């Protein structure tokens, strides 16, 4: 309600002042380079405001201006151009190639005049228009994964909710150690905490795929610690998404493709379609604008599984088949009267060797008869395959960006959107010989599915302008992410014949509301320029878990009542062999009422930073930030940075900072029981909060904040004669008390623990803990060149990152845990932190534009990774690989473009997993350590229309 009121206030303020507006007029034109090649994605802004637009792929632009205002044309790799408006309605602009990156930055500095070329810390500016026009990727995670070497993200498989939200990393650090901003305002994180076997296990990231790439003008990636500037989470760096402000221009694109690969089912799978539209409307006569984006995605699943090589049927399953064919109710075979079992075993031709009691029959009928039974049922091993690959997704996104000038020196702005994504992933196949399959209902077992409904909402509103010589910005940003589970094609084995096949398993949600007040002033008459900024922030967060339906989580007794630990063993459902049947929906037991919660916290912060150009060649900046959390206390952090011009074409830059990350509410309060497969064996493993009784008995300490120290040193160099720009930055990040998800504890001989485990229906327990310290060292290199080749323009970019993260010092454990350190922080957790994503990554990209054609060629080297397993002998190294993207684009007219191309043109796959890591043929390629995915070649076609 408050947000609606603020929106109404914004509009009323605008319309009350419209009569005082200056007369504006429309300016159009085309932006080209010196060779008359059009430049798509050029930023065209009105100086001193947030208003602006971008050029289309033919270099055309339209914008409303007032007389005497100045237009600034800026583009990566070219010198800026400034033009004063004098009433002329057509301005065709030629930009001169320049080595400097002259885009004015939002991230990494609060100086309104600072550009990427003279910042004291490394900032990458990514042109979205070019990438979404020529490149194969359309969602943000994959787009950044292929363009920014320091960024890693891949789709996961057989990992519950993480199949539908891709964990991402910057500089090899955790998904929760990079801060995401939109238009410079903090973005909320996902409600999903990664608790399954993937990179980022135990962390919470931001769902970048909830934001349509068609809404974005550019992406700024700050590759440096920035907690002193932006607060918690900015240990690895900051990603800022700058939204489009264009208007009177409709941009549409349709991209479709599929994986045509040697390992695809029927030679093709994973069909994908994306439809995106962007349009802006002018508001009033002073340059106001509202820009809309709609995006619709459909993605089919891929499957890269080999045939399951283990046991599918035992001899008892043969007895069931024969009895069922005879019209017998096979539920009766589970009774203690074994005469019918013996009768049908003999009909099945099974040699019972004189077995006459249930115990004797259990021994004989446990024999593996898979091959014979497959033949008898007319089936093949492939009929029992899982779906190992990307999940199936369908979703839509809507975003808007609003700017309304009020008076001469102020504007109201607002942005936000809503996205919905429905995911469908499969778990491990429940085989007929397993007690959890309950064959009287599912004779051949079943492949259970996890369906997700992910809703992401956000809204920000603010007002900024000048008060005297000070720039003031007051804003509020709200966001919420919810994640609800439905389990399909499954069963609750303890409900036996009464089991449904679909279950509402509950879900969780996370809300964040951030209010900011920022003040800046630039003094151009002090030294060579001095910028002062200060401000305050208030943040409110809420995390909640919602229970599912009773049948999704409960274990029932044979009387149909919810199982109580005091029940007699005689009424606990078992299979023929006496194995207890697990309760809850298979693949994902629902959240229980005991898991339900709604937890809040708040934080207040104040910051101050100063940036001084002592001379034309020497810049220094200092930032400090105080932050106080309602649940763990306060922290003070600082950052020092400097840039020295060592000559006309070289800068040397350095920075040092401290940082912190508050443990997320998810990490503090998430609790649930899920089915985890260890070496192919299913286990019900509980994740318990640190304030639980189980945690107290085991000696698990309460969570506290992570702290960090960062140092970076680098240089930028221009070689004008060769049109080259080179940046090299080395860095060190030390993090103390990193939060990890522990290994699996068992109750041992402790009677109270055993009782608590039983009540939770769990055989193991994991916890979030500040278990370790780590150090990350690395080097980032970026080389760019723009040159003329024949009658066309060739843009070349080489970017590389080399990093290494390792645990240092002792494991932080209480005295009670000293004998269980290998469980508290196990080998699997170590590899997830150190080597589950590429430590080396290189990107070589060429974009050639000539007349109506463009050719895009990119080679990305993804370095080696290791298999995440506790078995040291099986910690296989998967060697580095090169993935090639190629596309050809043609401008049919000024408004219409077609592109054909491929991602992974040469159909490259990671190394195959050794047999010990394949889970008897389930995983031909590692599911725990993803280099670049295992989907193979993707061919696509794209149509783009600009009107």
In short:
The protein has 947 residues and is mostly beta strands.
Tell me the number of helical segments per DSSP (H or I, 4 or more residues long). 14
Largest sheet: 22 strands, antiparallel, barrel
Q: Rough shape?
A: globular
Radius of gyration over alpha carbons?
A: 30 Å
Measured by DSSP, the beta-strand proportion falls in: 35-45%
What oligomerization state is this entry in? single chain
Total strands: 41
Average of per-residue pLDDT values: 90
- Bin the helical content: 10-25%
The low-pLDDT segments are: 1-22
- Sheet/helix structural class: mainly beta
Q: Could you give the distance between the termini?
A: 37 Å
What does this protein look like?
- This protein is mainly beta.
- The protein has a domain at 315-384.
- 11% of the residues lie in helices and 43% in strands.
- The protein has a 22-stranded antiparallel barrel. A 5-stranded mixed β-sheet has the order 8-13-14-11-12. It has a 4-stranded antiparallel β-sheet with strand order 3-2-5-6, with no helix packed on it.
- Helix 5 crosses helix 6.
How are the SSEs placed, and which strands pair?
Blueprint lengths: L1 H16 L6 E9 L10 E4 L5 E3 L5 E7 L3 E5 L6 E4 L8 E2 L28 E5 H7 L5 H8 L3 E3 L14 E3 L7 E5 L2 E2 L29 E7 L4 H4 L6 E7 L6 E10 L9 E15 L4 E12 L15 H11 L13 H9 L10 H8 L4 H8 L14 E15 L3 E17 L22 E19 L2 E19 L14 E21 L6 E17 L3 H4 L43 E17 L4 E12 L3 E15 L2 E12 L3 H5 L2 E7 L2 E7 L5 H6 L7 E14 L4 E18 L9 H10 L3 E3 L1 E22 L2 E17 L12 H4 L2 H8 L5 E11 L2 E10 L2 E2 L10 E2 L2 E11 L4 E8 L34 E9 L1
Parallel strand pairs: 1-7, 11-14, 29-32
Antiparallel strand pairs: 1-4, 2-3, 2-5, 5-6, 8-13, 9-10, 11-12, 13-14, 15-16, 15-41, 16-17, 17-18, 18-19, 19-20, 20-21, 21-22, 22-23, 23-24, 24-25, 25-26, 26-27, 27-30, 28-29, 30-31, 31-33, 33-34, 34-35, 35-36, 36-39, 37-38, 39-40, 40-41
């Amino acid at each position: 309600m408050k947000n609606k009121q603020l929106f109404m206030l914004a509009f009323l303020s605008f319309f009350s002042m419209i009569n005082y507006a200056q007369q504006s007029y429309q300016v159009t034109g085309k932006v080209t380079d010196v060779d008359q090649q059009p430049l798509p994605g050029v930023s065209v802004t009105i100086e001193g405001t947030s208003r602006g637009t971008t050029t289309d792929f033919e270099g055309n632009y339209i914008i409303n201006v007032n007389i005497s205002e100045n237009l600034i044309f800026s583009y990566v790799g070219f010198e800026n151009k400034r033009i004063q408006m004098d009433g002329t309605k057509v301005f065709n602009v030629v930009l001169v190639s320049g080595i400097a990156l002259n885009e004015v930055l939002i991230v990494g500095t609060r100086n309104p005049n600072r550009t990427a070329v003279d910042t004291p810390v490394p900032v990458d500016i990514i042109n979205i228009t070019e990438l979404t026009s020529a490149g194969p990727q359309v969602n943000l995670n994959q787009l950044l994964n292929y363009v920014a070497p320091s960024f890693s993200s891949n789709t996961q498989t057989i990992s519950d909710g993480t199949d539908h939200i891709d964990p991402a990393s910057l500089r090899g650090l955790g998904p929760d150690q990079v801060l995401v901003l939109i238009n410079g305002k903090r973005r909320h994180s996902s409600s999903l905490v990664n608790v399954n076997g993937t990179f980022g296990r135990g962390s919470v990231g931001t769902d970048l795929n909830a934001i349509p790439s068609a809404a974005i003008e550019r992406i700024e990636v700050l590759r440096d610690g920035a907690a002193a500037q932006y607060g918690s989470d900015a240990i690895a760096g900051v990603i800022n998404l700058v939204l489009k402000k264009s208007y009177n221009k409709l941009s549409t694109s349709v991209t479709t493709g599929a994986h045509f690969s040697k390992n695809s089912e029927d030679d093709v799978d994973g069909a994908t379609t994306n439809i995106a539209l962007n349009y802006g409307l002018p508001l009033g006569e002073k340059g106001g604008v509202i820009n809309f984006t709609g995006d619709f995605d459909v993605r089919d699943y891929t499957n890269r599984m080999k045939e399951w090589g283990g046991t599918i049927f035992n001899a008892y399953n043969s007895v069931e088949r024969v009895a069922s064919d005879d019209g017998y109710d096979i539920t009766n075979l589970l009774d203690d009267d074994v005469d019918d079992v013996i009768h049908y075993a003999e009909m099945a031709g099974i040699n019972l060797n004189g077995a006459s009691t249930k115990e004797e029959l259990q021994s004989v009928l446990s024999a593996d008869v898979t091959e014979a039974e497959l033949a008898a049922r007319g089936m093949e091993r492939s009929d029992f395959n899982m779906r190992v690959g990307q999940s199936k997704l369908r979703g839509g996104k809507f975003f808007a960006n609003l700017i309304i000038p009020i008076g001469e020196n102020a504007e109201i702005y607002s942005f936000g959107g809503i996205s919905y994504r429905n995911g469908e992933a499969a778990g491990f196949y429940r085989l007929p010989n397993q007690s959890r399959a309950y064959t009287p209902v599912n004779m051949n077992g079943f492949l259970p599915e996890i369906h997700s409904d992910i809703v992401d909402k956000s809204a920000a509103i603010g007002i900024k302008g000048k008060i005297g010589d000070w720039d003031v910005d007051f804003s509020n940003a709200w966001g919420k992410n919810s994640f609800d589970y439905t389990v399909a094609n499954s069963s609750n084995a303890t409900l036996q014949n009464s089991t449904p096949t679909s279950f509402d398993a509950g879900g969780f949600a996370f809300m964040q509301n951030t209010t900011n007040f920022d003040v800046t002033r630039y003094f151009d008459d002090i030294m060579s320029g001095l910028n002062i900024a200060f401000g305050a922030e208030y943040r409110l967060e809420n995390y909640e878990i919602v229970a599912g339906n009773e049948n999704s989580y409960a274990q029932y007794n044979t009387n149909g009542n919810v199982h109580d630990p005091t029940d007699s063993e005689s009424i606990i459902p078992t299979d023929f062999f006496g194995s207890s049947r697990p309760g809850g929906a298979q693949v994902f037991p629902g959240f229980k009422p005991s898991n339900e919660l709604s937890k809040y916290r708040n934080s207040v912060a104040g910051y101050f930073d100063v940036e001084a150009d002592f001379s034309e060649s020497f810049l220094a900046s200092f930032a400090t930030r105080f932050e106080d959390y309602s649940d763990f206390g306060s922290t003070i952090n600082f950052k020092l940075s400097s840039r020295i011009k060592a000559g006309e074409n070289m800068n040397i830059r350095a920075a040092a900072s401290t940082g912190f990350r508050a443990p997320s509410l998810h990490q503090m309060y998430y609790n649930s029981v899920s089915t985890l497969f260890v070496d192919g064996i299913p286990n019900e493993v509980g994740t318990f909060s640190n304030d639980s009784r189980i945690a107290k008995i085991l000696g698990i300490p309460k969570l506290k904040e992570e702290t960090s120290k960062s140092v970076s040193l680098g240089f930028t160099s221009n070689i004008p004669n060769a049109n080259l720009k080179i940046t090299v930055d080395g860095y060190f990040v030390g993090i103390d008390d990193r939060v990890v998800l522990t290994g699996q504890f068992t109750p041992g001989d402790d009677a109270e623990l055993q009782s608590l485990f039983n009540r939770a229906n769990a055989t193991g327990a994991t916890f979030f803990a500040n278990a370790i310290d780590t150090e990350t060292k690395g080097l980032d290199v970026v080389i760019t060149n723009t040159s003329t080749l024949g009658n066309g323009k060739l843009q070349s970019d080489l970017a590389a990152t080399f990093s290494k993260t390792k645990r240092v010092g002792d494991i932080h454990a209480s005295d009670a845990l000293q004998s269980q350190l290998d469980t508290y922080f196990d080998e699997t957790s170590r590899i997830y932190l150190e080597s589950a994503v590429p430590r080396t990554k290189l990107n070589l990209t060429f974009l050639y534009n000539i007349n109506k054609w463009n050719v895009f060629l990119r080679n990305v080297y993804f370095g080696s990774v290791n298999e995440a397993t506790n078995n040291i002998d099986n910690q296989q190294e998967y060697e580095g690989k090169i993935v090639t993207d190629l596309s050809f684009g043609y401008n049919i007219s000024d408004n219409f473009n077609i592109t054909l191309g491929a991602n992974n043109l040469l159909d490259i796959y990671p190394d195959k997993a050794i047999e010990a890591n394949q889970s008897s043929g389930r995983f031909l390629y590692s599911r725990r350590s993803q280099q670049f995915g295992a989907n193979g070649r993707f061919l696509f076609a794209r149509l783009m229309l600009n009107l």
